TrEMBL record, chains A, B:
Record-annotated Prephenate/arogenate dehydrogenase domain positions: 7-291
Lipid metabolism found in the keyword field: no
PROSITE patterns to which the protein is assigned, alphabetical: PDH_ADH (PS51176)
One protein family per Pfam: PDH_C
Keyword Oxidoreductase: yes
Protein name (record): Prephenate dehydrogenase/arogenate dehydrogenase family protein
Biological classification of the source: Bacteria, Pseudomonadati, Pseudomonadota, Gammaproteobacteria, Thiotrichales
Length: 291, 291
């Protein structure tokens, strides 16, 4: 298998996600130039010093010049403005991809900016992260054995799709292709919903000062359950807003599920509760591996 | 400080919780005899072999003879039957304590069996556990730096209360005294509610075969959030039934909280969502230490 080397890859937003992508590409020599774009000169300087990128700038014309592929690794709320600023400098060969946690909203943003879905646009979503954030946490191995979802539009060309897939695979990721709609539905259920539920629980308990410092009585179970409530509020605000339809659907279903569970508890329906807990335990034990 | 050595301590139910208590008492020499009672001869044999207890039996008369303190470390559903079987053999000096996760229900069981709340009855709840269970997981250090809640009744004598507190403190625990009602309220909020929410989420997703193996798309956040859904269904059935009032109250409040959250998502109320997430993040970061 011959290695395809691109001339220039640009990463917009050199934080954990964009930085890890850039650093991996650079280490593997998959582009002659890995360029970082951002608005914070300190951060860009650091990105170059840490060898996350070869070069960096806050000038979009420079960032996009001769670029074969641009990765948008910015919050969902910044996607459309960034696309607007890319547009005047976009060259015909440039493939556009992204790392957004909700896919239809990015597709809508591209449609809004370009009036169409370009054949060189291939949305993506790497499922990776770690406790730390920012360029200092960038890790060329972040995506190894992690899932990356690609959601090509009906216009995405095979060549562009294969290029995007190939880069993630080269970084060690397990690439999976699905529709944006299915992606948004599934991740609303498995990621967005649990985050909102954890935020809600912590916030609700926080609103009960009469219990004293109620968190003092929490143990390991609560710590694990609520860990995701320490996630970045800006990111989760954006996800909630940009995948609101699917999230609201799941929140409503979950609320309805609780509506059915409450009388079981009130009426001490031991058998029904046992069955529910056992089904959940078996499903989790079968499918989720604790690490 | 002189060490008070009891003649005989009996542990009913030699699993992780009872076994760890017994093993710690035995190591510290806080009783001349640490006796284990249970119905499974294999388990009792193992408890003696592993030096968790000095002696063991399935004969309640033998277990309670000359006993200074008995710890009931059985599921909440077994408390009342065990108390019934203890009653005919109870000696005047025997202090009764327990390790149940809900306190009022144990107090009710004692009242039902004895027709009063004996002065030697001191309810307790050690907040500890680990992934493994059973006597083989018994660990004399399980309670070190863990919280143990004591909820004396209006009849509990000071001497009995101090004896129970002293033993837990000797095992390294941080002992805290509160009312049974406050205990049940606080643990319904911080432990029982999150467990039920996690069970509910996993079970709900499991009921969506049209999404394929939806768990395949979960990442670390979901793994952490749902870990407690792998808990013992029997134990959680009992907790749900024996603390049903407080749990139902919190489930309803949480359901109502979601009712208020759903329109924020539907209407993409970015500011309100941000504020909620930020409050939750700050509360968690301030109060919960990740380990």
């Amino acid at each position: 298998m011959t290695k395809t080397v691109l001339n220039k890859i640009t990463v917009i937003g050199v934080g954990l996600i964009g930085g890890s992508f850039a650093k991996g590409i650079k280490k593997l020599g998959l582009a002659k130039n890995v360029h970082g774009f951002g608005h914070n000169p300190e951060n860009l300087k650091l990105a170059v010093e840490l060898q996350v990128v070869d070069s960096a700038s806050s000038d979009m014309a420079e960032a996009m010049q001769g670029c074969d592929l641009v990765l948008l690794a910015v919050p969902l709320g910044a996607m459309q403005p960034v696309l607007e600023s890319i547009k005047p400098h976009l060259e015909p060969q440039t493939i556009i991809t992204d790392a957004g946690s909700a896919k239809q909203s990015v597709i809508d943003a591209v449609q809004n900016v370009f009036g169409e879905l370009p054949k060189n646009f291939v949305p993506g979503h790497p499922i990776a992260g770690k406790e730390q954030s920012g360029v200092t946490a960038a890790d060329e191995n972040l995506y190894v054995d992690h899932r990356v979802i690609i959601t090509p539009t009906e216009n995405s060309s095979e060549q562009a799709t294969e290029t995007v897939k190939g880069l993630w695979k080269a970084l060690g990721a397990n690439v999976e292709v699905m529709s944006a709609g299915f992606h948004d539905e599934v991740f609303a259920a498995t990621s967005h919903l649990p985050h909102l539920l954890a935020f809600a629980l912590v916030e609700m308990l926080h609103e009960h000062p009469e219990l004293g410092n109620v968190f003092k009585y929490t143990a390991g179970g609560f710590r694990d359950f609520s860990r995701i409530a320490s996630s970045d509020p800006t990111m989760w605000r954006d996800i909630s807003v940009f995948n609101s339809e699917a999230i609201a659907k799941w929140l409503i279903e979950y609320r309805d599920y609780l509506d059915q569970m409450i009388p079981l508890v009130q009426h001490k329906d031991a058998q029904a509760l046992y069955q529910l807990f056992e089904t959940a335990k078996n499903a989790r034990d079968e499918h989720i591996v604790n690490r």
